[in-house]
Each structure stands twice: as C-alpha cells, then as structure tokens.
Amino acid sequence: MSMDIAQIASLAPVIPVIIIDRLEDAQPLAEALVAGGLPVLEVTLRSPAALEAIRIMAKVPGAVVGAGTVIAPEQVAQVADAGAKFIVSPGTYPALVDAVLDSGIPYLPGVATPAEMMYLLSRGIRHQKLFPATVVGGIDMLKAVSSPLSQIKFCPTGGVGAATAPDFLALPNVMCVGGSWVTPNHLVKEGDWAGITALAREAAALPRRA
Fold first, then answer.
1. CA of residue 80 relative to chain centroid, distance
2. Is residue 202 flagged as an active site residue?
3. Which of 15, 28, 132, 147 has the greatest number of beta carbons closer than 10 A?
C-alpha cells in the first residue's frame, strides 16, 4: 500500500539527505540508517550513481527511499523507474509540479518564499520543504508564516544540524527536518556503519511537536 507524503514524513523526525558516490556504500548505508530508526531516505540526484543507488537501497527491508534534487520534469520518470517512493525538489515551477502530480508519486517541493508556498497550496500541495532553511529565515520564517499559512506543514532542510534540529522540530508547523549530519562523509568513506547507526538512533529519538 502506497503512502502519501504526510505518512512518509511521520515515520521519523529526520530525513537523511544522502549523496552516494560509490555504489558499494548504498546497501550498507541504508541498512545502517534503518537500523537506527530512520527509514525514510532521500537519495539526491547529485552523482552519476544516484539512480542505481535508489534501486539498491529500495530493496533494503524497512527502507522508504525517495529521490531528491529532482529539478527537471524528465527526471520524474527516471526516478519512478528506479523505484523512488517519493520525490523532493529544491525549488519548484509549474512544469515540474505538473510532471510529479501526473506521476502520482508523493511530492515534497522546496519553497523559499510565501509566494511559492501559496502557489503550491493552489495546486493542493500542503506539505512543503523550506529550503535552504537557515538562509531564508529558518525558525523566524516558519513562525512568521505559521498563522497566515497555517495549512502548510514543513520539512526544513539546508543548514539544519544536530544542534538546531530540536528547535525546528518544536514548531507546530514542522513535521520533520532534512539533513546530512547523520551520514557524515568520513564515516561513509571509512565504512563505519555502526557509527552511522548511532547517529541515526540519536536523530530518531528527537521529539517533535507537529
């Protein structure tokens, strides 16, 4: 049974934002994150290995794997073919929204301004990614739009780390946060999967209000 984006976001307070450079890292990294309680994995299309990594990670039991950094309509079919269960984009525009909505794949589009938030609301999209969160106002922005745009739930991403994630998650209009701190490059390169599981476990235990 497929889940919508709200159900996917409810699975854990943190969505790891992942760049896979070596395919051999894909399966053990996914297994380490799932073992730590972070089943929702955003694999970004920022490397040549990304699509194959999605295919590999999607086979890991318990993993809900999505495609991030989707910026063009033609990428929607590519990530769907790779098995992505949701799509994340850093920003949005009508042709991309059309392509994702037509695909039926759950969508978490990026926004940076109230105008973008309102446009997506007009398209029926109430779950949005604030990006780059700390650059466009972060917690102050989320507080400012919480009343006039109370219909929207956000996943702030971009500059969010272990120290600031609790402050974001305490806001009533934040459903989860995205970040790369649970998959630091040095641990991935060293194959320290136990270390990543430990970081994932800490992130999965973060409380959230929304």
1. 16
2. no
3. 15
